[in-house]
Design goal:
Helix content is 38%, strand content 22%. It has 397 residues and is an alpha+beta fold. The protein has 3 domains: 186 residues, no CATH class; 53 residues, no CATH class; 114 residues, Trna Endonuclease, Chain: A, domain 1, CATH 3.40.1350. A 5-stranded antiparallel sheet has the order 6-7-5-8-9, covered by helices on one side. The longest helix has 20 residues. The protein starts with 8 loop residues before the first strand and ends with a helix.
């Protein structure tokens, strides 16, 4: 992501908005992106300081240096820098200094009294160590970051995707100083909460009649004195939210002019670089959904169609069945397990206290009906539709 000094934004009345690169500006910056990508590729094997010198030469007297440096920063994240050799550099320096003490004083210009120069000392030391004179000079401070060598540049960017990534990074940067984040979410609950959990964000959930759920995330500026780490977590969450299909977001951002509103929604045009999850977690789930949906059974079926708030976490059943008469039933599939996984899963289910919850459990697991207090449907190669409908009919009646 971008550092705070590279975040470009504009404040208008009570709102704040990133200064995105627009479509009108894109053609010019696509050339800059290609130039930067080529520069990183050609600098493999060279030091970080050499790369920075080349970047400064290209930057020249650009007035949009913040954009240029921001694009370069994103590319640098794809670059791997390492010391030129895998050795103990502090130990090498200590050896060199100890050897050099024999020849003090060391001067820049030799005379009749003082003849020891830096070049001569390095030559003498090379004869007493396993390091050649040429290597010694380059290795002396080889562990400093500016002397690290660019060993690989695994660039996944095209010029176009780099521009998109830059615009997203600007939006992420505003969230470094978020006081609060409110999201209205109408679907894709599991993927959003997966990234809330990965980012370790504090959240509250409230259902909204006929339109999904409201999720409130406390931001860094409202919680801690040292807010940088939590602010980065908030920024890391945003690409996960972009994977959802129907949402809107309202963030309170602390700025030099007070707290301002930052708005985004699912039509914002930003592109996530996170991988979209598969629609179904397994073929078992996919086949069951497709088979159930083929006929009109009096119940509609939704994939992960609700959130059950458990306070410190949430429970999202695999499927939700809704009857025209207003009844709702949930189905959770337990298809694989470790002892710890099964324990946490059952704790969540029991904490949810759902009256209309069915469990479908793989019969090959090392457990029996006695291990469950809940209503259980065992399956082997596929979830039996007949047993599911049988239980749904009991609920309907």
């Amino acid at each position: 992501m971008l550092t705070g000094n590279l975040i470009r934004y504009r404040i208008y009345k009570d709102t704040v908005r990133p200064r995105y690169i627009t479509r009108q500006q894109a053609s010019g910056y696509l050339k800059v992106c290609r130039q930067l990508i080529d520069l990183f590729r050609t600098h493999q094997g060279k030091t970080r300081s050499e790369l920075y010198v080349s970047l400064q030469e290209i930057e020249g007297k650009r007035t949009d240096y913040n954009i240029f440096r921001g694009l370069a920063k994103l590319l640098e994240e794809k670059a791997e820098f390492c010391p030129i050799q895998d050795i103990d550099y502090p130990e090498l320096r200590q050896q060199i200094f100890l050897h050099a003490q024999k020849y003090y004083p060391i001067v820049l210009k030799p005379d009749l009294i003082h003849s020891a120069t830096r070049e001569k000392i390095l030559h003498y030391i090379a004869t007493e160590t396993d390091v050649s004179c040429e290597e010694m000079d380059s290795l002396f401070y080889g562990d400093l970051p500016e002397n690290h060598v660019l060993v690989s540049f695994e660039n996944g960017y095209s010029a176009e995707s780099l521009l998109k990534r830059y615009n997203l990074a600007l939006a992420q940067g505003l969230l470094y100083r978020a006081v609060r984040l409110k999201i209205l979410l109408s679907g894709d609950y599991r993927v959003v909460f997966q990234y809330i959990k990965l980012a370790r964000l504090i959240h509250w959930v409230k259902p909204i009649r006929q339109s999904g759920f409201e999720i409130v995330l406390n931001g860094s500026a409202s919680l801690f004195r040292n807010t940088q780490r939590y602010g980065i977590r908030m920024a890391n969450f945003l690409p996960g939210l972009l994977l959802a299909s129907d949402w809107s977001m309202e963030a309170d951002i602390e700025t030099d002019e007070g707290v301002k509103k930052f708005y985004l929604n699912s039509n914002c045009g930003l592109t996530s670089h996170y991988r979209s999850p598969a629609e179904f977690d397994s073929q078992i789930e996919k086949k069951f959904f497709e088979k159930f949906s083929r006929k009109n059974r009096g119940w509609s079926i939704e994939r992960e169609g609700t959130i059950i708030d458990l306070g410190d976490t949430v429970f999202i059943p695999d499927f939700v069945f809704r009857h025209a008469g207003g009844r709702t039933t949930f189905l959770e599939i337990v298809g694989f397990w470790t002892e710890e996984y099964l324990k946490k899963k059952m704790e969540k289910i029991r904490q949810a206290k759902c009256k209309n919850l069915m469990l479908a459990v793989n019969s090959q697991l090392n457990c029996s009906r006695q291990d469950f207090k809940e209503d259980v449907i065992f399956y082997r190669t596929g979830i039996p539709i007949g047993k599911v409908i049988e239980r749904l009919e009991k609920i309907k009646s």
